[in-house]
Amino acid sequence: MNSDRRNSMRFSVVPSRVKAQLRVGKDTYKAELLDESMAGFAVAIEIPRRRLGEQGFVCESDCPLFGEIARLNLMGHSAYEVQIISIVPREDESASATKSRICLRLGTRVVREIYGEDRNSVGRNLRLMAAMVLAVLFSMYCTAQSFSGQLAAMVPTVELAWDDMLQQWQTLRSGERNWRKEIAHATSHGYVAPNTDEMTKLIDFSRSLPTLHRVEKVMLFQRDSKFLQQLNLTADQMLSVRKISMEAEAAMEQLWLQLKHEKQVFEEQLAILLVELETRILANLSPSQAKMWMHAQFG
Known about the structure:
alpha+beta, Thrombin, subunit H, elongated, transmembrane helix
């Protein structure tokens, strides 16, 4: 994993080899938990070489596992829904690759913990603490309080494809984005389509809300709650909005790191970013779901 993509605090796994199981689609792999951080887990798996194709892969994005949402079961511990965000061949002495199989080290980002199982883990507790710190820091900023210069170290690192998000955001800032993909998707599914009166009214209403409240609404899809159950989202809807919410966390962190010394500019660009995020989420909700989400209350 590239060092610039993984700089969050990591913890060695005790005992040194925790057995796990990784399920990707219909495929299930035996896995070994290597370490755990605030953001996710690193695991080693062996897969058939034929799974990678005749040429294997040079860039991790070419690997069929890259970007996939999977279920990680830690034997005797918890279960998580994770996204695979880094893939490198494992070549240390503990690897046992053969001609027919290859050992890979996977970096994963936790999407959510699957409840109903043992939930005690150092990484989970740190993630909860980090989420609380992030909410407090945004609250302080949005109420015009001064932030500590240590914000960058306190906000949990989010390992997602920031480049794609940045490109979309820059296009929106230029006023050139036409939302064709979102319009087609929303129209075909009966969701709220961009560039319609309904979307305009919802976005105008959202602009009238406090910034912190808007941030909390976007982050809402990262965790299970009674409110999400009331929305009655389909599996496809949940996957789409959860992905947007994860990207939002990375985008907001990146924006803060770039503009933390320019408060006014940060506020302006955060407002622009929130409009894009809200538009993308609304394009995956029905009109009734959209109204419920817009009027969600916290605290």
